[in-house]
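Hello,

I think I submitted the cytidine-5'-monophosphate job twice by accident. Can you confirm which output corresponds to this input? Input:
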Amino acid sequence: MSAPVVTIDGPSGAGKGTVTQLLARRLGWHLLDSGALYRLTALAALRGGVELADEAALASLALGLDAAFMPSPGNEPARVLLSGDDVTNEIRTETCGDAASQVAALPAVRAALLQRQRDFAQAPGLVADGRDMGTVVFPDAGAKIFLTASAEERAQRRYRQLLDLGQSVKLSALVADIEARDERDRTRAASPLKPADDAQVIDTTGLSVEEVLTQVVAASGQA
Ligand code: C5P
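Support: Only one job matched these inputs. Its output is below.
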């Protein structure tokens, strides 16, 4: 491995995105938002009229994905570009998240994105956010963290994030959506969502972002 890696895995809404961003900034390391790659593949498929079950066509889309992450000033997350088009907000919709979870279940799509993810491990280091960062993509990572939270709290967090993005959603629909997506992520044959054997599991239910960050910094071994 070319640089030190800290992996942060867990289900939707466990707080991975926020904590990954804060940890990467604190350490001055690169960041990999692997979920964005699955969301971009799904968006490219939706735009191109590719069936979400056409594994070969989706793998080829994933392999050729023209994706770019542009750092934003201040505390804003990176802008995400698909073929030069700013799709930062579009990939965060529930439609795109659900489609991402469908394409992510296909082994050929996962294989197509594997090397692209590993290429993010550059000096001085990488904080990688996803579902299989510690189990499959970076099995030799120096520190592996798995964040969890109750389904209700995860739905509440997603709800607030979507409202902030100006998207109107019903909380009850979101709970059902999150549970269905997690079930698919956990039970798929290819790289299912689960903590690596050597991961440190942190339950973030009821914790503030600062409290989670303190625990994550300690677990990362970079304090
Ligand atoms: O993390 P995010 O919600 O953006 O991920 C969207 C979907 O992409 C997840 O529900 C999951 O199905 C898939 N994913 C994955 N492996 C990763 C990251 C995301 O399967 N490493």
